[in-house]
Each structure stands twice: as structure tokens, then as C-alpha cells.
């Protein structure tokens, strides 16, 4: 209590023009209610598309020692963020120049009815290797997403620059309807991975279909996606991949994905989707999408700022605390079951990745990685979100019944003072025990603090530090 009052006084003297939001004599409360259950969590992850897997493996000069370090930071549950989802890119390019992802059928077979001319290099721009690294660290969810169909299947005969898949509503290609051929192509990609001992769990056939860009891209409306979804679903089922879920449609933002979803629902194709997938760029996840399907935030990053390892210094878009709140909001407000950052690690001077290895043979870890880790280390796939009622809105909170048993509470104190807080669990078996707080802030990276005693009734009292993220694990 003494230290709390000191903190409050210091903060008040230094900056705060208004009094603290709460009297220090009245602790805030967080009540976890195990009986009020929300979405199941599938996990937290990153992508390594566009040859970043090759870069992690040392293509541009990263040493083997630092390749290992990067892998551990991403996947290790003790030395890293313990990430549990990998998002690969299914290639559409004719070659691997620049950062292109090569296609498994780069040349046209002449017509949509002819069998595709497959070629498999066992590398897939090192995504096979990265998938194996992920598997060996316990990752079980590997999602492969195509940015585009190969050029010869599209209206613009180019895998870049937008264009549509021949055969969907509004297209009339001289070569015919390539929808079934594209579905066969995606299934063959799953087979190649299976041959490498890698079972992909999710597949997607679009990426940012509301955006035309100079790299691999393919335009689609929701209606057009609905023209493909049932074909892909039945092709997967017929090929023995009925357990593989389709994720769709990776629109640039929540609003855009919401519009696509409405069109898919109107076309009666929603049930073919396993996951409604959206990015966070053009509009952020702050509302639930109207669906009973699982919802994933599958790609987002700060693409504008210069590289930062700050947690909370200038309040810039790449800082860790900002991302802690993005993840918490996606889960709490948008019912997300997964949160996937853009790149895991790359040679960059921006914030597009969680880890940077520019310049030279160096590894820099952002606080964004530890914000992900505050969830991912504890909230493993299969965990279920439960109610966390908070008396003080500054303490953004979510709670989980962990898949291996026990409860995890993730709290972000967005306030500028420490708050004494009484935390209790309702609906549990009860019983005293120890609870460990893990903290990320300007001083710590998902670091365990001294254990706290939980009372017989299942409650404990803590001081939640200002501008910090704490995961309480019981
Ligand atoms: C990062 O990129 C720069 C510039 O292309 C290059 O000089 C450097 O060797 C690269 N470092 C790594 C580790 O890839
Ligand atoms: C590589 O593939 C792209 C299209 O995927 C093509 O535009 C380019 O000409 C190819 N480059 C080489 C060197 O083959
Ligand atoms: C099949 O692809 C290979 C290269 O991947 C090429 O050499 C061959 O000519 C192609 N066959 C047909 C029938 O297009
Ligand atoms: C992949 O799936 C197949 C078929 O369901 C199964 O037999 C195999 O054991 C799985 N392999 C791995 C590495 O999980
Ligand atoms: C495909 O689009 C890319 C990117 O705009 C362009 O550089 C390339 O020349 C195009 N290829 C063809 C065959 O039109
Ligand atoms: C949240 O998502 C789950 C599926 O993960 C679904 O059953 C539930 O209806 C969704 N709730 C809301 C409010 O959207
Ligand atoms: C690896 O990265 C670290 C941290 O940036 C750096 O100090 C070291 O020189 C790099 N190379 C090796 C071989 O450890
Ligand atoms: C952990 O956090 C401290 C303080 O913020 C920082 O100096 C250190 O480099 C971080 N370590 C890693 C591996 O990110």
C-alpha cells in the first residue's frame, strides 16, 4: 500500500493535472467467471511468406547461431513468445526472383480440363523448413494461404496486379472456367506438404482481394468468393482433406471483410468456411463479425513506422503496448480466436516484423513479440475465453480456462498509475494455491514475478503496475 501511494504521489506531481481515477483506498476488482464462456482460442502467430523463411534460414547473411535464436524467440515457450500458428504463402509466380513465391504449376496445361503440370522442389521458399521448425516446437496449426492463382487461370494473365479467377461471376475468359482447376491446385499443395510430413490444417485462396497491388494479388468480391468456396470444400473432402478448414477471405480490414461475409451469406456459402479471416489494416477489429464461425485476425502490422523496440515511450504505432491492446481488443471486442502478426522476422528497418535482423548479423526483438507472448505462452490452442468483469475500464482484461487446466488472466493497465486490485475467480473448484504474474513493460519481457498467494476462496490481491501487461497464471 505504501509503495502504491508513493507511486500515485509521484505520478501526480510529475504530470497528472486531474486527480487519479480512483481512490487508492478502494482497490479495483476483476472477477473471473468460469461459468460464462466465450470463444475457443486457436492461437497466436505470424507469417513468413515472400521468402522471409529463407531469410530466417540465412539467405541474406544471418548466422546459423542467430537463425536458432530467431526460431527460439518465435516458438519457445520459455525463451520466446511460444507462438502457435504459422501462416505460409502458397506461391503463384513462375520463379523465385526477388521475393517471389514460386508456383507448384507454373506453366499452363492449355485448358482448365487438362491436368496441371506440377513441379515440387521440396523447399517452397524454405517454408517447408520453417514448418518443420514449427512442428518440432509443438505448433499444430499451419495455415497456407494463396495470394493469387497462377497467371494462366486469371482474367489479366498475370499473378500480380489484381485480376480475377476465370469462372467467377462477372468473368468470361476465352480459356474457360478455372475454378475446379484452382481447387485441384490447392489440394495438390496440401498433398506435397503431407509428403514432407507436414499436415496443413487451414487453407485460403485469397489475400486482400479488395486491393490491387504490383505483387501477387487477385481481386474478389464476396459473391465471387462464394463461387469458389463450395468447389474448394468438395474438392478437399473428396481428396481426404475433410479435416482441413477453409479460411476466407483476408480482406484488408474488418469493415471490408464484413461486407464480403454478407455477400457470402446471401449466396448461401458461409457453411463451407471454417474460419472467417480478416486483416486489421484498413479498419481495426473492434466489433464482432456477424457469424457463428471462428474469426481470425490473420495479418496486421505497423507498416509505416521506423523499427522500434519500445514498449511505451512515444505512443507510436509500432510500440508494444499499442499491440497488446490491439490483440486484447481483437479477442474481447471482435470475438477473435486467433491473432496473427504479419512477418515473424525479417531484415527490415520498419515494424512489419516482430523481430528484425538488420543490419548485418544481428537480432533485435521488439516488445510486440512479448505482447504476443503474454497471450501465446499461456493461452494455448483449445483454451476457452471466460468472463472477466472489471470495475475499472483502464484495466483491459481477458481471462481463459487454459487447455491444460488452470486459469490465465491477461490484464493491460492502460493507466499511468499502479492500481491495487482484488482478483477473484467465481465458479471454480476453489482452494488456495500460488499464482504467478508474468510482466511485460518498459523493464520486462514476459518475465515471471514473485508468486502470489491465492486464498481459499480463490481470490488474491495485487498491484498492477502502470502502463504494463500482466498475465496471472493459476
Ligand atoms: C540485411 O540487409 C542488408 C541490406 O540489404 C544487408 O547488407 C545485410 O547483410 C542483411 N542482413 C541480414 C542478416 O540478412
Ligand atoms: C519470373 O516470374 C515472373 C512472373 O511470375 C515473370 O514476370 C518474370 O519474367 C520471371 N523472371 C524470370 C527471370 O524468369
Ligand atoms: C511441365 O513443366 C516442366 C517444367 O516445370 C516443363 O519442362 C514441361 O515442358 C511442362 N510440360 C508441359 C506439357 O507443359
Ligand atoms: C498427418 O495426417 C495423417 C492423416 O490424417 C496422419 O496419418 C499422420 O500421422 C499425420 N502426420 C503428422 C506428422 O501429424
Ligand atoms: C505482371 O505484372 C507485373 C507487376 O505490375 C509486371 O511487372 C509484369 O510485367 C506483368 N507481366 C505480364 C506478363 O504482363
Ligand atoms: C464468437 O465466436 C464463436 C465461434 O468461435 C461463436 O460461436 C459465437 O457465436 C461468437 N459470438 C459472437 C458474439 O459473435
Ligand atoms: C547474432 O546476433 C547478436 C545480437 O544482435 C550479435 O551480437 C551476434 O554478433 C550475432 N552473431 C552471432 C554469431 O552470434
Ligand atoms: C528485454 O527487455 C529489456 C528492457 O526493456 C531490454 O533491454 C532487453 O534487450 C530485452 N531483451 C530481449 C531479448 O528482448
Question: Topology, please?
Answer:
Elements: H1 2-14, E1 28-40, E2 43-47, H2 52-56, H3 64-75, E3 85-90, H4 127-136, E4 141-146, H5 179-195, E5 202-204, H6 222-238, E6 245-251, H7 254-266, E7 275-279, E8 294-299, E9 302-306, H8 320-332, E10 336-346, E11 350-351, E12 353-356, E13 364-365, H9 367-376, E14 384-390, E15 395-401, E16 407-413, E17 419-426, E18 433-440, E19 447-448, E20 452-454, E21 459-464, E22 468-473
Parallel strand pairs: 1-17, 2-3, 2-10, 3-4, 4-5, 5-6, 6-7, 7-8, 8-10, 10-12
Antiparallel strand pairs: 1-14, 9-11, 12-13, 14-15, 15-16, 16-22, 17-21, 18-19, 18-20, 18-22
GO molecular function, one term: glucosylceramidase activity
Pfam family, one: Glyco_hydro_59
Family: Belongs to the glycosyl hydrolase 30 family.
Largest sheet: 10 strands, mixed
Q: What's the domain count?
A: 2
The unique ligands bound to this protein are:
2-acetamido-2-deoxy-beta-D-glucopyranose
Level-1 CATH class name of the largest domain: Alpha Beta
The CATH superfamily of the largest domain bears the name Glycosidases
Tell me the helix content.
10-25%
Q: Give the terminus-to-terminus CA distance.
A: 23 Å
CATH topology of the largest domain: TIM Barrel
**Which secondary-structure class do the elements indicate?**
alpha/beta
State which percent range the strand residues make up. 25-35%
Low-confidence stretches: 1-17
GO cellular component, one term: membrane
GO molecular function: glucosylceramidase activity
Domain Glycosyl hydrolase family 59 catalytic: 68-346
InterPro entries: GH, GH30_C, GH59_cat, Glyco_hydro_30, Glyco_hydro_b
